[in-house]
Specification:
The chain is α+β, with helices and mostly antiparallel strands. The protein contains 17 helices and 16 strands.
Amino acid sequence: QEKKIFMVQGHYPVIRRLLRARGWVERKVPSTGRKLEQYRGDQSKQRLETRPSNGGDSLRYAWLPAVEEEEEEQCDEDPNGIHDLMSYLVRDQSPNFIWTNFLEGTDCRLLQQGNVVNHYARVDAFTTKEGLCLSLQKLPWIEQADPNTFFPRCYRLGIMDEREAFIEDFYLTAARSLLKLALEEAGDMPVRTEQVPDFAKGAGWHRSHISHPKHSTARTGSPLYPELVEEALEVCKEHLGVLWHQDIDRSTPSPCRTCIDWDRFLQEYYRVAHEGAGLVLTRQQRKQCQHLLQCLAEHLPQLDMEGKHNIWILKPGAESQGRGIVCTTRLEEVLQLARSCTAPSVHVGRWVVQKYVERLLTIFGTKFDIRQWFVVTDWKPLTVWFYQDCYLRFCSRPFSLCYLERARHLCNVSVQKWYKTSPDQDPRVPADKIWSNNQFQEYLAQLGKADAWHQVLVPGMKAAILNALRSAQDKVVFRKGSFELYGADFLVGEDCQPWLLEINSCPTMSPSSAVTRQLCANVQRDTLRLVLDRKDNPTCSIGAFELIYKE
């Protein structure tokens, strides 16, 4: 009668405990409660489904309880079987509130008008890498916003036009990178890049890459490429002309693709950038490099963050938790890896390739990212709540562009849990690889950037989230009464600008540290306050949530 029947699919003990404390009764799905023993007997016949996870942190699967977790929960929270009995009494009642891992795993007959569900349909338009890439391409036609200012440029390799656009982008980035490498030289002396050790050469994550060229003369017999700088200058001039719309009368739509022999240029560029070959730069060329890069910076928001090594990251378009991600510095490897993968969820049509953020802020020499929560409580009108607490995730090894293994470059907890902290890791990096945003703010203050969190990072994250949602708004299937908690992942540039990587539709609530144990519990508590308590009491506390947008 009070419409306080809930259903939870998945291991969410905090949600269960908080709802029961409010006087709600759980209608358990058949696999739980008194059927736990039956599940144990049948578990050998059941398997997780490894279909794409819609961008969420958790595997999408036909929901099955984790035995140890469920058993512990029952021993701790239902020693007398009271909740099982109450669940049995409401077994034929429709739940008024449903919290599930993913919407597709919920019986559609339970989705009646008026009940509350923690997911919307068709959110893959912004919660998969492929969907976010496509949606943000359309952003300039929807809003007066440029995705290149907050989202590393990204291409879907299964779409011919985008694959060709990526190839051209790779060419142009190589040319700009060569100019940046050339400017490492103080005068007319050739730039010398550090020699890649033989043991580190290889494809994918194990390919070495040079981050700090050495200023020295080329070794005897080391090839010099005086024409490379001239060719790179020519390419950048052509590109600048395109950006200035000076190519209107040209017969070719893409002069940058035809002005030099790109196959030869790339092979020689690789030798300079990655293999230690020498490079000659004259004083006049140095001035030209400086001028061109300054002009290009006015048109290319990512010129600084892209660095000078032309590293790209290849991702399956609908996977999560770092699955299938490969980082490389060579065009042929990107195209070959996309073609060679035969896994159904990562075939060439589902690959995206994205520019790696090379110039990023590190903490104690270690890469990190930010997991930022937000809730959408309505799509018509779009209503967005930003959570004011978040956490940082660290890698297990010091950041380096020389070595591209996962332990240095993927911050996902699901990836890093497989690696031990390396001996050369700074001891100040937390052992559990997690920081709170408060700890990060203290660190920024030590760097003399005390205002960066509130003046740069938070406004930048809010803007990126809103732009992503607006770009995909027409694709989401709206349902009144639903809501959804999302987890957005950001990298931080050297200038403290946040760069959006992805948005997860089912952010993990499993604590991996003392920080996440507290924060994950808090965000679940405050989400229930926002979507349940606030209906009856509009002035009730909603914890750390802040309304940042309502149409």
